[in-house]
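The following record pairs a protein chain with its ligand, glutathione.
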Amino acid sequence: MKIIIGNRNYSSWSLRGWLAAKQSLLPFETELRVMDSPDWISGEAKADMPSGKVPVLWDHGEAIWDSMAILMYLADKAGHDRFWPRDMHARGLAYAMCAEMHSGFAPLRSACPMDLQHHFPRFAPSDAVMADVRRIEALWEEALTRFGAETGEPWLFGRFGAADIMFAPVCTRIDSYHLPVGPTASAYVTRVLDHPFVAEWRAEALQEDYPFTRYDVPGAVNISQEKRP
Ligand SMILES: N[C@@H](CCC(=O)N[C@@H](CS)C(=O)NCC(=O)O)C(=O)O
């Protein structure tokens, strides 16, 4: 299998697709297409990207595009237990949370683009952004208390899985933009950022040096220039 991703620093959808590939434990290669490079702009770099967007998974000559489709495909291929909780109550909530994440939270996503190389200590979230954050905190709290806690494992539904993958870029945003959250969400964000797959992606993102200004937000501080509080 091969997964095509965009810049690790910026492409939150690529992070989801790539985490799904890692979580599958199946062998795969990663191919990075530099966003907004001349090839990207001309369309040449997108020749094998059916929707013109990353991520795309190629398997046995078939393209699976869109992070959610990649996750579903890999759950079918690698086994649903690696992605979804078994209990049907838990599974219903996990599906609903992933779907809401996939189609919602536009204010948070547009005001706080993923940028792993910077943080934004003076970022002032709008009411709409904070409404998204509160909704996400409530979802995490429900999953963690109803289903995560009893398993003794620290993820939303016990074992690391699809919901943790779908919300991983929200964790990076809460961290990068210093968005105020309660202790449960804050501890969960730290766990996700420290997860070995997420840590591997972040370490590689910090090495990237591609010109890309599309998602610039004022007040960016390079994380290597100023130590995080
Ligand atoms: N819903 C899609 C969204 C994918 C998406 O929007 N990817 C962005 C990069 S993060 C992209 O490739 N945009 C096309 C472009 O920048 O030209 C998914 O879940 O994969």
